[in-house]
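Researcher: Quick sanity check before group meeting.
Model: Go ahead. Protein one:
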Amino acid sequence: MYGDERPWGYFEVLLDEDRCKVKRIIVHPGRRLSLQYHRRRAEHWYVVYGTGIVTRDDERIEVGPGSSVDIAREQKHRVESTGKSALVFIEVQTGD
C-alpha cells in the first residue's frame, strides 16, 4: 500500500494488478479533482464517508456514504468534497 499527496487530498493504492487497480481516495473539504477522462479504463466509485458532487459529462450527482457512481471510458468526470469533513471513496479501475 502506498499513497500520493495532491493539492486536493491524497490517495492510497490498495491493489495494483494488470487490468485492475483499487484506490482509497481522500478529498479535503472544499477541494476537487481536475476534470478528466480516460480512453482505456472505466472506474467505479463507492463513497465511504463525507458528501460531495460528482460531475459526469453534463450530470451533477450528489453523493454520500453508501452511494456509488460508474464512470465509463471516455466520460469526463471529477469529484468535489462539499461537506465539513473529507470525502472518502474507493475507486476500482478496470482496463489498461
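Researcher: Fine. The other one?
Model: Protein two, sequence then structure:
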Amino acid sequence: MGQSYHALWVHLVWGTKYRQPTITKELKFRLFSKLREIAKEKGYHLDFINGVEDHVHLLVALHPSCSIAEVVKNLKGISHIWVRDNQLSDQYFHWQDGYAAISVSPGRVSIVRNYIRNQERRHSRQSFKKEWAELRKHAIEIRNDGF
C-alpha cells in the first residue's frame, strides 16, 4: 500500500491570562476567524472553534508530522500578537501559559464538536473552573512546557 491514512483529532482548550474576560463579543468572531486563518496557513485542519469570555475550545485534525505543542504555540502566539498589534482589545489581552490537549476518537468527533458548539449554554450553568477540573481528570499534567 503506497498511501498513508490518519485520523488524529485533538480537542484543545486554553484560557486568557488570569482568566480575565477579555474575549469580548466584539473580539470573539474576529479572533476565531484569525485562529482559522493561522491554522490554514500552517496546514492544520481547524474543524470547530468556540468559547466564552475567558477561554476557547478548538477541535483540530492534525497531520502526523505536526507537534501539538507547536500547533498551540503558533495559534496562541500569532493570535496574541495580532490582537495586540491591531489594538483589538481595550484590555491587556494575553493567553494563559498552559493548555489542555485531549485526544478524540474519530467516532466521537461529532460529540466533541457539539460540546464545543454549546459553550455559551454550558457556561451559563457551569464555571470554567469546574469544566477545567473535569478535563483534567483524564489528563497528565506537564509543567514548565513554555506555553
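Researcher: One line on it for the slide.
Model: Strands lie at 8-15, 45-52, 55-62, 100-104.
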